[in-house]
């Protein structure tokens, strides 16, 4: 079933760069989402598996799974959801044209896991095409400031946000001058934002784990870029278990790992945003 965006919602999105929709999934559907996310979390990790799990080092110094990417092609339920008419209709109305799935990930922000430094997503995508994207955050579990929920700068998608090219994150002088708005979501609720919106998240200082689905979409007129994106990512920033000992992945780190807890594996300690 398609979802109709109201003129007021469209106006808010255009002005602020993001939109929250709270009535997307029923309680039963939210429970399905939690089950599917755990299934992806538990997928085997071998040299042959095409999905892409990544680890981080948590506050206790342990290596834990923090993300899985490139799973929609291999999980029938997620494929139907992320490429289904309900989400695509929402994104099409906000973008004013049809959209295609570009990339997808599940972030596992386990208790004690690290946060993400302030950044904009577009920095990671320009090697494929210099295009604008829309991203959804679908909360698998409740997301709030205690467990490292997202914060955004309203209207930053139309600002000249300065990027520190040494780490591809937002310059600290700009970060400190902004008002960061918490985005708190219950399980099954949806956030949509563009690739130029400034956002960040803190560490999970609560005693509870949480998962969140992020899926990014590009305009259909620009072509299906999903597999091309993951081919490049697999070469430059492979899953943790597929990395060659002694090999350095500086280009992939700067392109795909900037500001994220994934950097902690190479650093040997928890990344501090």
TrEMBL record:
<dbReference type="GO" id="GO:0046872">
    <property type="term" value="F:metal ion binding"/>
</dbReference>
<dbReference type="Pfam" id="PF05721">
    <property type="entry name" value="PhyH"/>
</dbReference>
<keyword id="KW-0560">Oxidoreductase</keyword>
<protein>
    <submittedName>
        <fullName>Related to Phytanoyl-CoA dioxygenase</fullName>
    </submittedName>
</protein>
<dbReference type="InterPro" id="IPR008775">
    <property type="entry name" value="Phytyl_CoA_dOase-like"/>
</dbReference>
<keyword id="KW-0223">Dioxygenase</keyword>
<comment type="similarity">
    <text>Belongs to the PhyH family.</text>
</comment>
<dbReference type="GO" id="GO:0051213">
    <property type="term" value="F:dioxygenase activity"/>
</dbReference>
């Amino acid at each position: 079933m398609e979802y109709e965006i109201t003129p007021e919602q469209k106006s808010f999105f255009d002005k602020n760069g993001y939109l929250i929709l709270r009535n997307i999934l029923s309680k039963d559907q939210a429970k399905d989402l939690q089950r599917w996310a755990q299934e992806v979390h538990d997928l085997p990790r071998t040299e042959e598996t095409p999905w892409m799990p990544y680890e981080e080092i948590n506050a206790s110094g342990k290596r834990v799974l923090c993300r899985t990417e490139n799973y929609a092609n291999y999980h029938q339920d997620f494929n139907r959801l992320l490429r289904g008419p309900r989400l695509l209709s929402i994104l099409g109305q906000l973008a004013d044209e049809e959209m295609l799935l570009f990339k997808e990930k599940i972030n596992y922000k386990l208790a004690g896991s690290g946060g993400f430094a302030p950044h904009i997503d577009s920095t990671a995508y320009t090697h494929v095409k210099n295009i604008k994207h829309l991203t959804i955050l679908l909360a698998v579990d409740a997301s709030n400031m205690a467990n490292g929920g997202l914060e955004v700068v309203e209207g930053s998608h139309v600002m000249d946000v300065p990027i520190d090219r040494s780490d591809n994150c937002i310059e600290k002088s700009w970060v400190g001058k902004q008002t960061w708005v918490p985005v708190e979501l219950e399980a099954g609720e949806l956030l949509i934002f563009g690739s130029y919106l400034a956002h960040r998240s803190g560490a999970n200082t609560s005693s509870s784990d949480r998962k969140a689905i992020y899926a990014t979409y590009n305009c259909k007129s620009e072509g299906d870029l999903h597999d091309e994106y993951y081919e490049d990512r697999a070469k430059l920033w492979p899953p943790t278990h597929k990395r060659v000992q002694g090999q350095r992945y500086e280009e992939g780190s700067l392109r795909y790992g900037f500001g994220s807890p994934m950097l902690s594996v190479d650093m040997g300690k928890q990344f501090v945003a």
